[in-house]
Amino acid sequence: MIRSYKSEDLPTIMDIGNRAWHEIYKMFREAYGDELFGRIVPNEATEKGNQIKAHCEEHPEWVYVCEEGGRIVGFVTFSLDSGKKIGEIGNNAVDHKCGLKGIGQQMYKVVFEHFRQQNMLYAKVHTGLDYAHARARRAYERAGFNIRHEDVDYYMKL
């Protein structure tokens, strides 16, 4: 069941987010090295949860959670740009411990319907091109994202 966010959901979705980004942060650390990674992600154990918390505090109406058997197993944050008529999916994850398939797709369908109800014309999502984001890319493509733009971030030590 997909439902609107409630403030008491926050600790659970922060935990799901922190655990879900573990492999992504591991890849970032390998790519950037310890020094640069530490500047970008000061505390990898809590960084994603803190981003989720900030979004929930600023726009609790732009968060959905998925419950199965009375337990939260996933969440999705999003935003709406009424001027451009683009709805954007933000942080989202499914609890890997739940063992259920298709939760992400269920959440995206609900978000897409909300976007349509809010008169958005496009949906957007941002993800990495690295191996750590491969599952996310497959999920977004399954959900119907089919217009793609690639870019690259460069860093150098000064």
Can you walk through the features of this model?
The protein is an alpha+beta fold. The protein has one domain (2-143): 3-Layer(aba) Sandwich (Aminopeptidase), CATH 3.40.630. Helices cover 42% and strands 21% of the residues. It has 5 helices and 5 strands. It has helices at residues 10-20, 22-40, 47-58, 103-117, 134-143, and strands spanning 2-4, 63-68, 71-81, 86-94, 122-125. It has a 5-stranded mixed β-sheet. Helix 4 (103-117) links the parallel strand 4 and strand 5. Helix 1 (10-20) packs antiparallel against helix 3 and helix 4 crosses helix 5 (134-143). The longest helix is centred in the N-terminal third of the chain and has 19 residues, at 22-40. 25% of the residues are buried.
Secondary structure layout plus pairing:
Elements: E1 2-4, H1 10-20, H2 22-40, H3 47-58, E2 63-68, E3 71-81, E4 86-94, H4 103-117, E5 122-125, H5 134-143
Helix pairs in contact: 1-3, 4-5
Summarize the structure.
The chain is an alpha+beta fold and 158 residues long. 42% of the residues lie in helices and 21% in strands.
